[in-house]
């Protein structure tokens, strides 16, 4: 018991430190590469913070534990919007970039709906996983080219940050990014190991473990990164990271996992948890549209929904 608690605490410390370095490296690289911070948030940071979900889902599917593989992704996607974004906007209300509404949110909805449609036969096949992953690659290529074009038209999006990062070499920024990813990797692993052991001792089902304990554990990187980004007022990375992470969770994590090992989908997941995931993603749209800022009231509403969802599971 004490060993698991220590693992959880050390994991959390590593995740917070990893989030700090990840944001620092991502901002520096975005300026050096003449890309917007939103693109870095949606791609590099999102992939980095989705690594725990990928590792957990691959391991769970290979060990014949589809409940954990699917529950991990759905639970993480619900937590990213309802919990992580909720907490983040309570710290600092987030203005919403135009491209987030035009490109990123629609892509997140497309990924969610495709996941639902592909799961109707209670199985996610190799071909369906391949389709999800190829669509993700196309989306990444599109937003990189689109943002490079926009950045050239606007010359620069943040002269102050550019002046500061110009003094630091690109290799140092990459070093910060790698340190951050390592912190997130080991921190999330230790947090998951400790939390899962505690949950098993308490006699909780695999489905609930996957969709709550493990999903929360794998969402802590997003929470740490987004809170640090919000505190530093790097709100493009904060929003881009969360929406991008949900896209990666479905299209990369489940896509790659299904390519390696087709995943069975339980009926209760299709008829209950999937609706929560899609419903919360839909709710995000009016929050972004009205006032072009996600405020503290929205944060309270999102947190309330997350708590309600968790209570209903138990």
Plain-language structure description:
The protein has 314 residues and is an all-alpha fold. It has a single domain (2-313), classed as NCX, central ion-binding region (A middle domain of Talin 1, Up-down Bundle). The chain contains eleven helices and four strands. A two-stranded antiparallel ribbon has the order 1-4. The protein has a two-stranded antiparallel ribbon with strand order 2-3. Helix 4 packs antiparallel against helix 10. The longest helix is centred in the middle third of the chain and has 32 residues, at 170-201. The radius of gyration is 18 Å and the shape is globular. The model has no long low-confidence stretch (mean pLDDT 81). One of its GO terms (molecular function) is calcium, potassium:sodium antiporter activity. This is Sodium/calcium exchanger membrane region domain-containing protein. Keywords: Membrane, Transmembrane, Transmembrane helix. Its main location: membrane.
